[in-house]
Design brief:
The protein is an alpha/beta fold. The chain has eleven helices and eight strands. The protein is 49% helix and 11% strand.
Length: 399
């Protein structure tokens, strides 16, 4: 993380200083051609984001072209459900209540004793010790303690309400789709709508030797694979770290997307979404150190691009308002326009993914630059100041 931290700090500081110098040249006494420096930095960051965007396009529309979730082969009778929580009793109860009636082996793994109707509740003992921490520690305790002879263990977060469950395809790891619901901040919700547009790249993951990430709010793991790989590793992103380790360790690893959807909660406040993205960014970079060099480079470049995108937006947009047209013409202008259009496309694709009544959010498309900043700001924080421990995103419950 040190390399990312130093680089991002340096580039961000230079961009800010160069932007000020371009607007008020007298500040730097004319000792440095800051306009040239600013253009060079903008070219560098734009090139980085362009490379990342092209990678996304190839993943989504070349590698993932034509992907359809396999026909489900495993129903609720083959599935042992574990819902993870600290002590959010009311939120967990709502999740259990919305599970299809066919699920008859439902367990809640909590940090504190709680009462939940319709599920067996287990509190992780204070004296249980392993390498995994927080959520990973709870999952590892459950793996060691709760025996099951069912084919799959389905892990759900406390707020992940399963909808339209048709079964699971036969694979080592099956990723459920997500569709965050609004719980508070409008911008936080729209940032998750935007993320759903970007996240359609998941349809390519089944065709990669190592999926680029996993979402633990709804993920099913073959029981035999779980026992071989285990969750016993210190990480902030236990779901992605598990999938990466499984892909590295197993001779033939399979990953598929399910048709089932989880309606989880979007972070209720801007602080919560920043902290959530902060953990994801820091955890992914740290866990990527165990990946092959090519995958490790891809993870880091993507993080750089997402971290720098709001910095550039926060500088270029105000300068444009002030009439300072740095790089507004030529190739740079075309690239900027294309990347801006792709940003809007990601948001629109997210709205289309929701469909139905959510189409009214198409009217928020002009806010795409702001939504991008909200989505990516936590990546900056995660690189500059990685969290020391797992921070649970606030859950509010209710409809």
């Amino acid at each position: 993380m040190k390399t990312e931290r130093v680089t991002l700090t340096g580039v961000g500081a230079l961009l800010a200083l160069a932007a000020v110098a371009v607007v008020v040249p007298s500040v730097t006494l004319g000792l440095v051609a800051w306009e040239r420096v600013f253009e060079l930095l903008l070219w560098t960051t734009t090139g980085l984001f362009t490379a990342t965007a092209l990678t996304w396009v190839v993943l989504t529309y070349v590698v993932g072209a034509g992907y359809e979730s396999p026909v489900p082969e495993h129903g609720p009778d083959d599935i042992h459900v574990r819902i993870l929580t600290v002590d959010a009793e009311d939120v967990v109860q709502e999740t259990v209540d919305t599970l299809p009636d066919e699920f008859d082996d439902v367990h809640v793994i909590a940090e504190e004793p709680i009462d939940v109707a319709g599920a067996a509740v287990h509190a992780v003992p204070d004296d249980f010790s392993c390498d995994a921490v927080r959520k990973g520690r709870a999952i590892e305790w459950a793996r060691r303690t709760l025996g099951t002879d069912r084919e799959f263990v389905l892990y759900l977060d406390e707020d992940s309400r399963v909808a339209s469950f048709e079964g699971l395809p036969d694979a080592d790891v099956v990723q459920l789709r997500e569709r965050p619901r609004r719980t508070g901040s409008l911008l936080s919700y729209l940032a998750d709508v935007y993320r759903m547009g970007v996240q359609i790249e998941q349809r390519a993951f089944a065709r990669l030797s190592i999926p680029l990430f996993a979402w633990g709010g709804g993920i099913a793991v073959r029981t035999a694979v779980e026992d071989e790989v285990t969750w016993d590793r210190e990480t902030l992103v236990e779901d992605t770290a598990f999938v990466w380790e499984a892909a590295r360790r197993l001779d033939s690893f399979s990953f598929e997307l399910a048709t089932a959807v989880c309606h989880n909660e979007a972070p209720p406040t801007l602080t919560d979404i920043v902290q959530q993205r902060r953990r994801w960014a820091a955890g992914n970079v740290e866990a990527s150190l165990e990946l092959p060099s090519g995958y490790q480079a891809l993870v880091r470049v993507r993080n750089y691009a997402w971290a720098l995108s709001p910095i550039v937006t926060l500088l270029v947009v105000p300068l444009a308002v002030l009439g300072v047209g740095i790089g507004a013409t030529g190739l740079f202008g075309l690239l900027s326009l294309a990347l801006g259009a792709l940003t809007v496309f990601w948001y629109l694709r997210g709205v289309a993914y929701y469909g139905g009544e959510q189409y009214s959010w198409l009217l928020a498309a002009p806010l795409a630059p702001v939504i991008t900043v909200v989505h990516s700001l936590g990546t900056i924080v995660g690189i500059l100041n990685p969290p020391g421990e797992f921070r649970v995103t606030t859950k509010v419950g209710g409809n």
